[in-house]
């Protein structure tokens, strides 16, 4: 595993991190139905976190909203006795329970503070390394949000903070009220609109975590052709994968099969593409089992895609319609 510096934090992070959304599994909705990620098992999820550590992975990214906190709980359980070996990132939804049209800074500060305490409790930790906003705060709330994050840092509850978004305007607004140490940015071979944002983050010395590097499974090669409609109905990707434009996009994916060679899989080529961007600090690829984790981690060791491969792949990728995961 290779490592990079996470911007101004100075943290030494593995190039491949673990995205812990898939391990949240299925959770119960208000109507009693189950919804989420199919094909998961809690014991295997814990085993894959331990395997990731063996492979040199040292960053895991979760959120309070992943499985209604279940992802954080599994992360906390898996990291007992090994906390010092990991950089733990999680997220807060700042607008939850907050009225957009009736500014209430006290309620907002309480929401973020209590959410942080809840995450710490589920993670069984005293400090969160990287705390991220999981949505753009309402405009009136931005100053109070940034002040509350700074207060949590002063109190030792979080070490560094930022936001998960590709919206440069929102980032600039928040930045005007305080520092942004990290950004979580959606970027992959099929969805590359964040290219300039990544360059900007590098110039500003802001660490970047890259989400959806495999476009929620589109770039695994598993869902093209006859498998395009194979997801279970309670899988969170099901509805988007049924859209005609998505099915048409999946049908084009075999045109990228040339990226899979004897030395690498399509997954690894796709992760390598993201890693080769100079603005990328860490790619947080999701996994449901140890095999997927091993395949993801190996992308750190393969050579960059060649100029000729990129010249062939990028025009094809531009023709593939995605579900808009970014």
Secondary structure topology:
Elements: E1 3-5, E2 12-14, E3 16-19, E4 26-28, E5 34-36, H1 42-54, E6 59-61, H2 70-78, E7 87-92, H3 105-123, E8 128-133, H4 142-154, E9 158-164, H5 168-175, E10 182-186, H6 195-203, E11 207-211, H7 238-242, H8 244-252, H9 266-275, E12 282-286, H10 290-297, H11 307-318
Parallel strand pairs: 3-6, 3-12, 6-7, 7-8, 8-9, 9-10, 10-11, 11-12
Antiparallel strand pairs: 1-2, 4-5
Model description:
The protein has 326 residues and is α/β, with parallel strands linked by helices. It contains eleven helices and twelve strands. The protein has one domain (12-318): Alpha-Beta Barrel (TIM Barrel), CATH 3.20.20.100. The strands form three sheets. Strands 3-6-7-8-9-10-11-12 form an eight-stranded parallel β-barrel, surrounded by five helices. It has a two-stranded antiparallel ribbon with strand order 1-2. Helix 1 crosses helix 2. The model has no long low-confidence stretch (mean pLDDT 96).
